[in-house]
Amino acid sequence: MVEIADLFHIVYDRGASDLLLTAGTPPIIRLHGELVPLEYPTMSPDEAKRVIYSLLNEKQRLEYEEKKELDLSLGVGSKHRFRVNCYWQRGCSAAAFRPIPNEIPKLKDLGLPPIVYDLAMLSHGLFLVTGPTGHGKSTTLASMIDLINMNKRCHIITVDDPIEYIHHNKNSIIDQREVGGDTQSFRNALKFVLRQDPDIIQIGELRDWETISSALTAAETGHLVLATLHTNDAVQTIDRIIDVFPEHQQQQVRVQLSLSLLAVASQRLLPRASGDGRVLAVEILRNTHSCANLIREGKTHQLYSVIETGTKDGMVTLDASLIKLYRRGLITAEECQLHMRNPNAFLDAVVKDKQAG
């Protein structure tokens, strides 16, 4: 019989990033980016339902059955905390668990470039952390909030679905609001947030044009806004924000974005060449004067060139970040080429290294 406490111990002991429970397969963990079945029998639909329902209270069970989806954060004792998504597949219960460290990592330990420290200390503007699901966006935001909490006296309001990292007041006051428990939705929370005297607003995810519009307004009116978005690179992030609005509003949004955006950090977590854990590659787009002009004029396709030549402003392309990790021996050549926008740039870098050596 599967016991969830035993599975949680395995996740932490082996350093897995995820645990998956679904009927028709044994419990599965994601280890260094790869799915690994555990040495358990195949789970039946009844077994999967029993394990998942054992974690839910009555209110959560009713919501799960009504909406067929459920997000929650789960604390188990003093050691185990998980972000959980329960869902249904082919009429059977299933769930994905992601462990959340009790301690918030320091920015310097994440492998982020120094420019991120500087951006966290600014008083207003919009900073976006983007990338696919499971690539450390929430961790980056939590580390930035923790840095601010230690170094500034301000009022920070976070809105998450669900709350992952728990912050404790240090020099700042942090109010953490969870969608479903403390507010009905991101939309509702952001509708009233400016009346709550915030200095800094952290939004777990920009999901629609209304939340994006609220974030832009808050950034325009003298607040630092930190948020995540599911996009593949920095330039795509700009297009995604603009395209989510009706066509007649897009020019206005371009102007707002050109004035309020601070930077975009697009992240990828890649398996280490040693096979031990993952390492961060990051693309940084900083909203310099030339970037703002391109955004305002709708010429976002030219932003790639600005990033390539913007090293002095703290910018870096994903390709350059990947090549740097490869040169340091942190990722393999195959992994480097797999994620590059221009794989030929890798070959050019290899030739230069041979010539220099």
Order of helices and strands: HEEEHHEEEHHEHEEHEHEHHEEHHHHH
* Strand composition percent: 15-25%
Sheet bearing the most strands, described? Answer: 7 strands, mixed
Count up the domains: 2
How many individual β-strands?
13
CATH architectural name of the largest domain: 3-Layer(aba) Sandwich
Arithmetic mean of pLDDT:
92
Radius of gyration from the alpha-carbon trace, in angstroms: 21 Å
**Content-based structural category:** alpha/beta
Shape: globular
CATH superfamily of the largest domain: P-loop containing nucleotide triphosphate hydrolases
Provide a count of the helices: 15
Main sheet: which strands, in order across?
9-8-10-11-7-12-13
CATH topology of the largest domain: Rossmann fold
Stretches where pLDDT falls below 50 for ≥5 residues? none
* Helix-residue proportion: 25-40%
Q: What gap, in angstroms, lies between the N and C termini?
A: 58 Å
What's the CATH class of the largest domain, please? Alpha Beta
For the structure shown, list the relevant keywords.
single chain; 357 residues; alpha/beta; Beta-Lactamase; Rossmann fold; 2 domains; seven-stranded mixed β-sheet; six-stranded antiparallel β-sheet; 15 helices; 39% helix
How do the helices and strands line up, and which of them pair or pack?
Blueprint: H1 4-14, E1 18-22, E2 28-31, E3 34-37, H2 45-53, H3 58-67, E4 69-76, E5 80-89, E6 92-99, H4 107-110, H5 115-120, E7 125-130, H6 137-151, E8 155-160, E9 173-178, H7 186-192, E10 200-203, H8 209-220, E11 224-229, H9 234-243, H10 250-260, E12 261-271, E13 278-286, H11 289-296, H12 303-308, H13 318-327, H14 333-339, H15 343-356
Parallel strand pairs: 7-11, 7-12, 8-9, 8-10, 10-11
Antiparallel strand pairs: 1-2, 1-6, 2-3, 4-5, 5-6, 12-13
